[in-house]
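Here is the promised in-class demo. Please do not try to memorize the tokens; focus on the logic of going from shape to residues.
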């Protein structure tokens, strides 16, 4: 038993990226015809019970298939923050899209935490349609089903505490069973939002990401993550390159690859075209 909640360290590891335009990231497009690149992350939470890994990224083969720029293996890169995948006992899956669950096979001793609603969605009737099905890789989904038959999947129904100071909260919309992680750190509670909000701009302006299962729930989930966090700068979006600019690496040589999220950000606050005080360009 803990007399007080543990204070965890959190690292974000950037493993891939892709070039894109603003119109690619919003339902209805966007009038600002300017670049809006996307980063891909996995997150590592370390504390007295060892390491928890949130999301697993994709493989180099998947990067080639989906035309993403693969920077480094996200699982091999856990060693950059002192974690060996073979020793990880708990993996949190925010949702089962191809870029969040692709390396499950590299965690031989882990149990996998996801929402039961997400497993039902990923194996359910909507996967027959090209738009929702495209976000999933069938072999990853089947792999998680096999792990469930082996007793290695913990399917939660609603909010759950997976360890003192780490809670999971449903935040659907982008995917039907998406969940976010709330982690207690020395700077307070940090919300690892994953794809509940891809960019800061989405939840700060109530704009909708282009891939959505339920737009009403996506908007409600923006409220959820704001209620869970003490401030906007305690919310970590799932794909925003700005994260790498506002947080510092744990070591200078890891700049561009890893940043530490349990330490307060030192970089500029996020901004975007059309925001007050932001110069509009390339309109």
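The designed amino acids, position by position:
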């Amino acid at each position: 038993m803990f007399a007080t909640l543990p204070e965890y360290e959190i690292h974000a590891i950037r493993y891939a990226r892709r070039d894109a335009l603003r119109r690619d990231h919003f339902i209805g497009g966007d009038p600002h015809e300017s670049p809006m690149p996307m980063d891909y992350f996995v997150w590592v939470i370390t504390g007295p019970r060892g390491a928890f890994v949130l999301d697993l990224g994709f493989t180099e083969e998947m990067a080639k298939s989906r035309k993403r720029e693969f920077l480094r293996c996200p699982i091999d890169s856990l060693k950059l923050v002192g974690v060996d995948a073979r020793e990880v006992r708990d993996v949190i899956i925010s949702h089962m899209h191809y870029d969040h669950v692709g390396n499950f096979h590299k965690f031989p001793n882990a149990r996998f935490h996801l929402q039961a609603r997400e497993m039902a969605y990923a194996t359910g009737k909507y996967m027959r349609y090209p738009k929702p099905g495209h976000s999933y890789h069938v072999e990853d989904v089947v792999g998680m089903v096999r792990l469930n038959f082996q007793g290695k999947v913990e399917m939660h129904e609603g909010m759950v505490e997976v360890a003192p100071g780490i809670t999971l909260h449903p935040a659907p919309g982008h995917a039907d069973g998406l969940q976010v992680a709330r982690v207690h750190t020395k700077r307070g509670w940090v919300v690892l939002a994953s794809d509940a909000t891809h960019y800061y701009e989405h939840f700060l302006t109530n704009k909708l990401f282009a891939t959505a299962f339920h737009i009403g729930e996506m908007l409600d989930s923006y409220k959820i993550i704001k209620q869970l966090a003490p401030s906007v700068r305690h919310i970590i979006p799932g794909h925003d390159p700005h994260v790498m600019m506002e947080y510092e690496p744990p070591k200078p040589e890891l700049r561009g690859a890893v940043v530490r999220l349990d330490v307060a950000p030192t970089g500029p606050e996020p901004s975007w075209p059309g925001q007050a005080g932001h110069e509009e360009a390339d309109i």
